[in-house]
Amino acid sequence: MDKFFIKKPRSSSDLSVSSHVAPEAQRETITSSSSNVDCILGVGSLKRDPGERKPIFEYDSNIRDVVRRHYILMGPYQPKLRVYPKTTFGTSNRQFNPEWFNAPNSAWLEYSIDDDVIFCLCC
To answer: Spans of biased composition, class Basic residues (predicted)?
Structure first.
């Protein structure tokens, strides 16, 4: 294998430059992909409410990643309502608690107003 490839020496300056370039390049890629969603699907065609969203697998396989990135860029849908609807569960009434948005490890928690259900943005 060494006959065909020559190893390139690594220096610490090469590593530091590449670590600064990669996040910027990723941001540019994500930003350009979100504008691609607007061009492909039309502005505002993606729903914010997770209960109204079309499942990712129903999109064309060529644009699924672009749609996923667009939803991640928009961030989780966390509407702040004064009163959340109550649901009868067994013998008690339960309702969504907006403090769950602030709980540890719940940054991706989403709430659907139409369905009165919680979702995980990345799931």
So the answer is: 1-10
